[in-house]
Structures are given as C-alpha cells and as structure tokens.
Amino acid sequence: MQVEAAKSSPQRQRRLLIGGLVVAILLTLFFGVRAVRRFIDRPTNEPIREWMSVPYIAHSYHVRPDVLFRALGLPDKPPPDKRPISVVAKELNLSTEAVIELLQTAIEQARPPKPPPPGEAPTDIPPPTDEASAVFWIG
To answer: Is 96:85 a contact under the CB 8 Å cutoff?
Structure first.
C-alpha cells in the first residue's frame, strides 16, 4: 500500500499544479479582457464628482483644460494641476457643488450646440410664404 500511496502523490501534485495553472490563466484572461474593454470604452460625460481633477473632467467631456481653469479663475499651470475638485473648492472658498456648477456651465458653453434629433424640423425656420415652396414644407 505504501508503494501505491507514493505513486499517487506525484500524480496528485501534478494535477493540483495543472489545475492551479488553469485557474490562474482563466483569471488572467478574465481580468485582462475587462481591462482592455475599460481602456477601449472609456467613460465619457460621466457625472462630475469631488474626486475628479480638472484635466480628467476636460478629457472626459472633450473640452480643453484651460477653458475649465479659466472658468474657475485658476491659472493654467505648466505642470498639470491634478488636484481633486474638493481641494480646489476649499482653496477658492466655494462649495464643491458650486465648483461643479461652474464647470458644467463652462462645458456647455465650450461645446458646439447639438443638432436637432433626426426627423425633427428646426423650430427657428419660418414656414414658406409662396405656394410653390409651401407644397414641400413639412411642419
């Protein structure tokens, strides 16, 4: 019996080693795929939070950082200013909500206006006055 137990021990160790290796490979693939997906599908236009820095917000909303720094009245320093909004708000003696509102206003002003959804006619165009054009007017 001792001979059989000695033979099964290396086989068992080999199975455990192979099983552990398979589990490690599966975990690596799982988390690797998640990381690649997160890198490719970066969040954009996510709600502004206290922990975010001005450059992070600028990148997320596709706005130049100097626009946001000017909106807060901060100089655009040569090295990136990566302080969170909560720290910037304390420095400016404002609440974080007020700083977030300033940033959102600056983002709205910096972006081009959105086109109307497909299928909707623009509301600021007056209807045609002559009969020939009125035939093609949809409104």
So the answer is: yes
Name the one residue in this structure whose structure tokens are 């959102």. Answer: 104
pLDDT category at 111 given cuts 50, 70, 90 is confident
Cβ atoms of 29 and 75 within 8 Å: the answer is: no
Residue 68 lies in a domain: yes
Question: Is residue 86 assigned to a domain?
Answer: yes
- Tokens 């302080």 correspond to 83
Range of the domain at 95: 54-110
Distance CA 65, CA 57 (A): 8
Cβ neighbourhood burial of 105 (10 Å; 0-12, 13-18, 19+): exposed
Q: In total, how many domains does the chain have? A: 2
Q: Annotate 75-88 with b (16+ C-beta within 10 A) or e (fewer).
A: eeeeeebeeebeeb
Tokens representing 74 are: 């901060």
What integer pLDDT is reported at residue 121 of this predicted model? 58
Q: Write down the pTM of the prediction.
A: 0.55
Residue 73's Cβ-side half-sphere holds a number of Cα atoms within 13 Å equal to 8
Query: Quick count: other Cβ atoms within 10 Å of Cβ 68?
Result: 21
